[in-house]
Amino acid sequence: MGYFVALAIAVGFGLPLCVLSAAQAQAKAATVALDGIARQPEAAGKIQLAMIIALALIESLVIYALLMFFMLYGSLPSTEAMLKAVAAESAAASAAPASH
Fold first, then answer.
1. For the chain, how many helices (H) and strands (E)?
2. Which CATH superfamily is domain 16-78 in?
3. What is the pLDDT of residues 43-64, one digit of tens each?
């Protein structure tokens, strides 16, 4: 049961955390590239190309995280199955004799 709880937490928090990290990385890459273009306008083409490649690599990590999200989400059991498991577990715990 603990496995499914951990899996649900990973699915719920993993993707947003990855997206926020990627957004910060993209903002930093764009800021640094624009600063470089402002300092050396003649190198704008090379800096822009490097920035676009870096942004594509950052975005590919987000797409990979989205793929992992869907894979993990597919591993989660349905709500009905979890409710039945919890009911069976609580029934077994109440039926067991208390040992003191």
1. 3, 0
2. F1F0 ATP synthase subunit C (1.20.20.10)
3. 999 999 999 999 999 999 889 9
